[in-house]
Design a protein that fits this description.
Blueprint: E1 4-12, E2 16-21, E3 24-29, H1 32-38, E4 46-54, E5 63-67, H2 70-79, H3 87-93, H4 98-106, H5 110-113, H6 121-131, H7 143-148, H8 153-165, H9 171-184, H10 191-203
Parallel strand pairs: 3-5
Antiparallel strand pairs: 1-2, 1-4, 2-3, 4-5
Helix pairs in contact: 8-9, 9-10
Amino acid sequence: MIGYLEGSLLKIGEDRILLLANQVGYEVLLPAYVIERVHASNIGDPLALYIYYQQTERQPKPVLIGFNSEKEKEFFQHFISVGDIGPLKAVKAMTLPVGEIARAIETKDQAALKKLKGIGSRTAQKIIATLCGKMERFALPTEAATRKMSVDGETVDAVIEVLVSQLGHKVSDARRLVAEALDRNRAIITPEELFEEVYRGESKP
């Protein structure tokens, strides 16, 4: 079973890519928030993805679904444990970053979950009933939680601004990177420390 692929981009589609790894081209489905980031890349650029491998008797053709990190893949595995949400429906539904979806689940925000593609009121209720209380480690911090951290909100906003305006990240990606950095290191105080932790996380495979 394939759990991780590292190679170069051969082709970028609307919801999938072709990744060349060890002289083999792998077609990989990507959630919308992942494909957005890949669209900023060029053919031939290096790319590493954590892979969810799907193959069943009813669906014998293997399907590969790619994620930026092992943590995102783990969230996906929780997400598809909800009744009526299979892997293909889940990958289409994940139009927001994992942190935002997880926070909506933890705060029981049905309106936010209904913004996901293909998710209606009944399914949103099922998601909350199944996963609420289990998603805290995946969720982006609320503004109130951020204020309780040693790093202040102005520092967080300043780092996000630089990531977006100077380094070309999308706002959603910048917020995710900062949230993950703060989750890894609660002792961060200065913008320099936060930048260092963000890129330490980015450099990990």
